[in-house]
Amino acid sequence: MDKVLRIDMGAAGGPKATLEPVGEYAGLGGRGLTSFIVAKEVDPLCHPLSAANKLVIAPGLLTGSSASPSGRLSVGCKSPLTGGIKESNAGGQAAQALARLGYLAVIIEGQPAGDDLWKITIDAKGVGFSVDNSLRMLGNYDTVEKLRKVHGDKVAYMTIGQAGELKLGAASIACTDRELRPTRHCGRGGVGAVMGSKKVKAIIVDEAGTTLRGPRDPVKFKAAVKTFNEGLQKHAVTGQGLPAFGTNVLTNVLNEAGAYPTFNFRQGRFEGASKISGEAQAELETSRGGLATHACHRGCIIQCSGIFNDADGKYVTKQPEYETVWSHGGNCGIADLDVIAKLDRMDDDFGVDTIELGVAIGVAMEAGVIPFGDAAGALRLLGEVGAGTPLGRVLGSGAGVTGKVFGVERVPVVKNQAMPAYDPRGVQGIGVTYATSTQGADHTAGYAIATNILKVGGFVDPLQTEGQVELSRNLQIATAAVDSTGMCLFIAFAVLDQPETFQALVDLLNAFYGLSLTGDDVAALGKKILSTERAFNARAGFTAADDRLPRFFEQEKLAPHEVTFKVTGEALDQLFNW
Ligand code: SF4
């Protein structure tokens, strides 16, 4: 990759594209690149929906190569949800196409005058812009269907749904998968609202005429690919659990551990968990002619994704992820996979983060808007988001806003971003990550579940405070680096457990770029990214008070372990002292 594409949506006479050399951004990719560009070019005090914010899109360092699974796409900006720096990444096909076209990053800045909706096409010939107001307030599915008639089936689409156009805080950016379904989302932090604020409805990426990106040292690269793939295939999580049951394999595990947030984080076990578990989901999917094993992008050998059909064998949505099954399921007291699949389809269609919306509906249930367990009510509430009603805009603005509007005290957010599917009282290490992450409450920022619950990379007792800050620190550093490679974070299970698989990852980078990085260099990159993000947030006004969980986690005991979150503020403040 050798160029940066800068698109000024507010240029006089209409959107304008310019190419820039990589310059100081050489050697960066994915999250590292989006965060460095945002930190350098975006005023931390700007309004996230203003012309001053920028949407930075970046494939990873290994994206577009033959390394698996390296097709993640990072999107960065100042977040409309948290007010801090944001990086949100997704699978799908767009990252590989952009990488093969030679783009290190695409920076979308400015804002067009007027109300027209724009399409951006990127292919081997260059960049094009066109107005298409016929797409206005269409969901992602209808949008892609219309676009396919014009641009065909051999391209990757990045689109926003109604939520992005309405600039809601939970709005996502959808990336199409191999079957051209808009199911892989940069979901967290409202990145879709920033795309909507730039009046960009769709980005169409056509890789025709390109080939795989080639490594500097093909022999060493091929050997590293082989070792890396063998490592993924022999590990129990990446080789067996995820391919067979998807991420939802975690429902029974977390429920058993007593850390499955139920009824808006009121208890740690859900009676209906077995009905919505990964095992039940895989059986249902295969019995209906769907798929329990599927790759969200070309070349992924873990294949944790799937296809969920209805009782008539008709496609509904991709296999809902663990976090989605939890947010719309156990968190809301709904033990029905068909309802959860419908909600997942609606989330993808409207273009909203499934975690944020499930938690927002849980908060609305806490407020008594509808009772816990009311499946029809949940479908109705989510439908309001797509319709853009005032209530839908409240919910689509996230759990924090929903809590404020309905006067709810128990709102599980950090930096205004909803907590995912692990109760921080039952897994203290993930509580440290939620509290301190630069991204707001985000399990992927430092997945302490691996070591606290799955005993990957050692074991730290999930119910005790000892070792949790160190665990989260190390995971956050490693994650920031992995998020820069374009590798799916699920490789971390094998990389943490198997030294030779970690070494193979370093070897992949070295062979591809002709470098001689060590594990320490990779850790140094992770620290640099985190420090850059922390500095941006500090300039945006964040203080130590923002690195805390809502008070009720320290006050209310979580059944069945009857435990509170016990890591002190003083300890949390040590996380970034390295
Ligand atoms: S492991 Fe799953 S989420 Fe990751 S790239 Fe593969 S299919 Fe996509």
Textual characterization of the structure:
The protein is α+β, with helices and mostly antiparallel strands. 40% of the residues lie in helices and 14% in strands. It contains 23 helices and 17 strands. The protein has helices at residues 30-41, 94-100, 140-151, 162-165, 191-197, 218-234, 236-245, 250-257, 278-287, 322-328, 337-350, 354-366, 375-387, 390-396, 399-406, 428-436, 449-452, 468-485, 492-497, 499-513, 519-539, 552-555, 569-572, and strands at 3-8, 16-21, 55-59, 73-78, 85-90, 103-109, 118-123, 126-131, 156-159, 173-175, 184-186, 200-205, 291-294, 305-309, 315-318, 413-414, 417-418. The strands form four sheets. It has a six-stranded mixed sheet with strand order 2-1-6-3-4-5. Strands 8-7-12-9-10-11 form a six-stranded mixed sheet. It is globular, with a radius of gyration of 22 Å. The mean pLDDT is 97. The structure holds iron/sulfur cluster. Residues 69, 91, 295-297, 300, 302-305, 488, 490 line the site of iron/sulfur cluster (SF4). The site of iron/sulfur cluster has 12 residues, from loops.
